[in-house]
Amino acid sequence: MAAPERTRVAVVGGGPAGMFLGLLLARGGIDTVVLEKHPNFLRDFRGDTVHASTLGLLDELGLGSAFAALPQRRVDSVEIQLDAGTVRLADFGRALPGLHPYVAFVPQWDFLEMLADAAEHEPHFTLVRSAEVVGLTRDGGRVAGVRWRDYAVAEPAAVEPAVAELAGVKRSAAEPEPAEHVLAADLVVACDGRWSTVREAAALVPREFGSPVDIWWFRLPRHEGDPDGGVGRLSGHEFMIMIDRGDTWQCGYLLAKGADAALRGEGLDAFRAKLARLQPWLADRLDTWPKTLDDVKLLDIRVERLEEWHRDGLLLIGDAAHPMSPVGGVGINLAIQDAVAAAQLVGQWMRHHPGPVPADVLSGVRRRRLRPTALVQAFQRAAARGVVSRALKGQVATSRTAVPLPLRVLTRFPILQSIPARFIAIGPRPEHTPSWARRLERMAPR
Ligand SMILES: Cc1cc2nc3c(=O)[nH]c(=O)nc-3n(C[C@H](O)[C@H](O)[C@H](O)COP(=O)(O)OP(=O)(O)OC[C@H]3O[C@@H](n4cnc5c(N)ncnc54)[C@H](O)[C@@H]3O)c2cc1C
């Protein structure tokens, strides 16, 4: 669909933050256009987690039944398999007595399509797919809109978009460049993720906190009788996570930053042997999977944060403002909480005032979300350095008898499992949707 030439809010990126924000603002009667560079939401590499606090938001929006109808797996605890046995890190059932004492694993494309479907019922909402934002327009010093290219007209050569996106790969210069359009807006909100084009166009540079680890990301077939949900496995120098996606496992094999070339040099058979040693029940498929090491993608893990999340006419939220590491699987929830806070503050103001949004309203979003973001990123950094990186160096005891002390404490006092459970499933400072965005269920009750 072609975008209008003018709107009140131009949201760049239809990921979790962008789709949530678009839906909320449109429900507030604010004309909102979401520009998403991909033709659909069929991407991997984003994480499939939908946390208890997000599930509560969906209930507030009247989307609880629509979400419940999606194919999903519900995980009520987080466990890690050591050589000495399985240790429970977080018990959601104990910590979250409400309606959703679990984290749901849902293919992210289904989740985003559900949000798009709900938003497209709103007369003030427009989603333009295959629309890549390439720059900003200005009116004096103020950001006054975006420049975007319509790839629905000239679809570029097929790339694995998620891989390109996570690796920061720009489109190839050989691909045809369709004509540029301009969308003028009172406010541009950058929700375009960790490699944000808008952030770069606004000359905003995030502070880097670094990460001692990267991930090899690949899929394996999932067979009848395999475990359900998420699986974490730590043994010797090796750490792997596996995310249950129905008929496939999305696997993440952690490696020290910079170790990619050496590991690849060991070859495919050596890697398959490591996997079989870590998870012997995978052995029945490792003769043929992964097919080649080209199917094993290196994902560059980074933790970064902007000092300022706004400019005149521009707001940045989610990974565009603070790229998250996958540690703990919490970035999606945090991005959605940012979107809800932005709707509360900025949406509320825009409902009652025409024209551009004042700086103190825009800066309120960072004031509200900085602490929870900093806290979650501090946890991710501590976990990456204190556990994952040490484990890869073989400094975490995982022998048949030794369980690391913090894990022994969690096992000895299960009540303590509520703390990581609440941190993961709810997160610090959970938000609530504005009353004007709420709806009663529009589908049959569960
Ligand atoms: C390997 C890996 C695994 C992860 N696993 C998990 C997990 O299991 N659980 C979890 O909670 N978090 C996970 N995370 C973190 C999580 O992916 C992010 O924190 C979260 O997706 C941020 O949401 P967002 O909406 O801000 O950005 P994104 O999800 O990155 O969405 C950005 C959107 O903008 C679009 N876009 C980008 N550029 C443009 C442009 N120029 N024009 C138009 N559209 C554009 C993109 O196509 C995309 O749809 C993981 C991260 C990594 C790197």
TrEMBL record:
Keywords annotated in UniProt: Oxidoreductase
Superkingdom of origin organism: Bacteria
Keyword Oxidoreductase set for record: yes
A Pfam family reported for this protein in Swiss-Prot or TrEMBL: FAD_binding_3
Stored InterPro entries: FAD-bd, FAD/NAD-bd_sf, PheA/TfdB_FAD_monoxygenase
FAD-binding domain mapped to chain residues: 6-347
Single Gene Ontology MF annotation: FAD binding
Identification of the protein by name: FAD-dependent oxidoreductase
Organism listed in the record: Sinomonas puerhi
